[in-house]
Prior knowledge:
Blueprint: H1 15-20, H2 31-41, E1 51-52, H3 73-94, H4 101-104, E2 105-109, H5 113-127, E3 141-143, H6 153-156, H7 160-178, H8 181-194, H9 206-218, E4 225-226, E5 230-231, H10 234-251, H11 255-280, E6 288-292, H12 295-304, E7 319-325, E8 331-337, E9 340-341, E10 355-359, E11 365-370, H13 371-386, H14 391-396
Parallel strand pairs: 1-3, 2-3, 2-6
Antiparallel strand pairs: 4-5, 7-8, 8-9, 8-11, 10-11
Protein name: 2-phosphoxylose phosphatase 1
GO molecular function: phosphatase activity
InterPro entries: His_Pase_clade-2, His_PPase_superfam, Histidine_acid_phosphatase
Amino acid sequence: MDQLDCTVRNYFENDDNKRHYSNISDKIVDKRYEQLFRRYLNVYNYNLHNVIQPPKGFRIIPEEGCHTEQLTEIGALQHVILGAQLANVYRQKLNIDRSSGHKLMKVYSTTYQRTFQSAFAFMYGFIDPMTSLEYKHFPNILTTKGHLFCGSPQFCGKCDKLNYLFRSFEETRSKLLSSNKHTIDVVFKLRALISPSNKSSTFASFEALYDGVLTYLCHGSKVPCDDFNGCATTAEIEHLISSLENHYKSILKTKMYKKMNLMKTFGFYQQLIDHFESLIDDENHFKFLLFSGHDVTLIPISSVLDIYDGIIPPFASRLVFETYKNSNGNHYLRIVYNGKDLTKLAEICNSSKQCVHLQDSTGTFYSLILLDSFHHFIQDKLKELTNSDTFENACSYSI
């Protein structure tokens, strides 16, 4: 990927390049975002001790150029802008300012440089520090095992049933995707074009290959070429994307896929529920939790709620769980995906007893999930899909 232009230092002065970034944000020409990103690119005096167990060779800011293990500067720009935009929505409501981030925010990242860098870029945009002295108020970035934020060792350890489901799923998927000769030809060609020399395993999975190809498209670059394979075509790239999305759409409602995703994400949801319950009991001062992961994190988490539609999440996608408390002391949950309220589409809202349906002052209807019901929903799904009352039993019960 060395042929790609992955830096943005000079792009703010070039009107053509400003238009080029319109797919990232229609506010990219806003001077506020430009100044914010320039400060971000010149970060110094940030205490790396704030990053707990960082990956080897860790850099908090992406290097110039394109590196498969790092975020690109354009990707960083996307996350800085996202953080700034969400600050407009949440910072005042949560009373988070430049000096309270470490007290009110908790940040988790998977063990990849890209997700650490995404988390920091988002925090930078969200907190908007004016001087390096304010870095001391940034929250720690905590490393978590795997892609799925499983939380405690209870949910991160060996799980025979989940391993079996995952193997079965991968075998079925591989056969399905490999049954189409054109798909296989496209995969081999694209993999050869974008993989580093002697590292064909870099894009071994379909999702990793998709990410690699998308890097070219999202940076406005020419498609990759070499003397042996020629050039990738738009049709080939579209075929790869449609093959993956058609596959996801075909398995969304299958019991094996639902069961696997619930067991994958049970630890995450338990962690989320524990956080909600501690908020209700006024035992938790953290008002904002950030989990910086991957598309393969977001897909199973949204699948459990039955809000995943089979479309691969765009870069910098976000799934937001908002909590509310009314004057009677009742607590509710709203689910927002990439700015769209999907609460009423969640499976839990199929029951009127678990959701309330309201109308705001503009006449718009919306739904909220009772927080107690959310806890029961996850537990009930475990019993329904695995015939077990606990995660431990679900992991060990007979195939």
